[in-house]
Amino acid sequence: MAATLLMLTACSDLAPEIPPLERARLALDRQDGLGAEIILRDMAARGTPIPEIAAFLGQAELQQNQVGDARRWLENADFTPQTQGLGYHMLGRVELAEGHLPMAGMAFDRALETMPGNPELWVDIGRLRYLGGEQKQAIEASLRALELGPDNVAALQFRAQLVRDSEGLEAALPLYEAALERHPESLTLLGDYAATLGEAGSTRDMLKIARRMIELDENNSRAFFLQAVLAARGGEFGLARNLLIRSGNLERGSPAALMLSGIIDMQQGNYASASQTLDRLERLQPDNQRIRLLAARCLALGGRHRELVHRFRDRAMLPGSPPYLATLVGRSYEALGQREQAAPFLDASAKPRSAALRAMQTEISLDVALSRGPRTGGDAVALVRGLIGAGQTGGAIANAEAFLARVPGSGDALALAGDAYLAAGQGGQAADYYAQAAAIRRSWPLTRRMVAAEMAAGRPLSGLTLLEHELADNSANSEAAVLLASAELAKGKAQKAAMLLDLAIANGASRDPEAQMLRALSAMAMGEMEMARMAAIRAYSLQRMNPAATALLAEILAESGDDTAQSQALARKAAILSAR
Questions:
Q1: So where are the chain's domains?
Q2: Are the CB atoms for 434 and 453 separated by under 8 Å?
Q3: Which of 162, 243, 462, 498 has the smallest number of CB atoms closer than 10 Å to its CB?
Q4: Is this prediction's pTM over 0.90?
């Protein structure tokens, strides 16, 4: 027995130690960039030639988000034949992180020469293509990555992200779940899964995943941010602020964090702070209409009426501008005692909202856009939108098609071409381009245009089906619910319309006069006159100068016989408003 123990001890003493390069690779596999760097630098100090370890050092620096340090190891390295695939792959990541897309492409091409079967390389190629406007080709790369690495975290995550963009939240959830079965402790997968659950309305499940992320990493910024969003939705704004600060996203200037911070400040009455945050965010995203409306509302709540009218009076009167913006400008003029200036804005805000789509306005004039031509994506968008706004649909189509020919795999270019054809009344061609764009990235604004294209093409049932699919994927979309309810009411399906309108009102449309008027009409059709009266009163209180809301309330009061004098007065007012 003693002899056996001595033999085992001797064998243990003779067991080979894991070579340092292998230990560094294992650390990199664990995403322990710092641990790998310490091992690799020690190897260099002991005389290991830099070309043998430069690729690994670059990877270690990237895992620590030290892009500049990674470049120093990778840019001029004479990689060994065994490491050049990894080296050029990491160099491509450096170029991608710094926005040098052509250089990233060249580096990835070099990497492909020696490791064409690497799934993570194909993921990075897909991300490069997506950023470069080749979104169809990015989808192909994601499928290739998943084929090469069906269990690879990066491949699974990238594919799930693209499916979420094109097919919706519910379609992406099974992919995330399958990935997490293989990699239950992957924080990147858990973060994406939690965010998708939250957007799909599964807030309890989202909270469970966020808490699991903190169990794995007590300082995980994304988990704290997700919980901050949940707290804000629940009205716990003090808690939301604390969680947002702990996330660190606000300090980093994340647009989502800035938006949340502005909303929290507004809810807590800190209007000056909210205004500063929203101004900063508007500079980052100048075409984001929601930010603009929040900024205007913040100025109104803070009593800064002169600034509000100065900044927003011209924009409020543009075609397609939200009625609420005109309301804010009008009320600010009233607060300043300038009733004559307020009148046209209040009149504009009271006009019934048209279901027709309008071209989005840009900050660039048509003359400037024509002088620039469609040189870049931004220039092409400005030019096509400007031509649509000017009624020059032939020129809009020609320039949109020219832009699409340059970047045939771009979802944005496909959607822009659809816009041009829709403006020209060619609904069928618009619908075709929109469908191709939606296969890459589907959003509610795109779906809204797809519905309009189907209607213009004489396919109303297809348009309604799109709305039903949108609500199935996102039941909180109040605009989609109101549009579908209007169509159902027109078909005589008052009960279904009422159900959809109740859903919309519960999800943010309570201050939408159109939703309240439709709810009143659906209640009338079902003989529920008290419900009709309440909804009509709400619609009228929201837009007292709206002739349709005024006439509807007059009709319901007359039919119920509650107040004949008030009904007659409202009817006279509606006639006067309609005659304007």
A1: 354-474, 486-580
A2: yes
A3: 462
A4: no
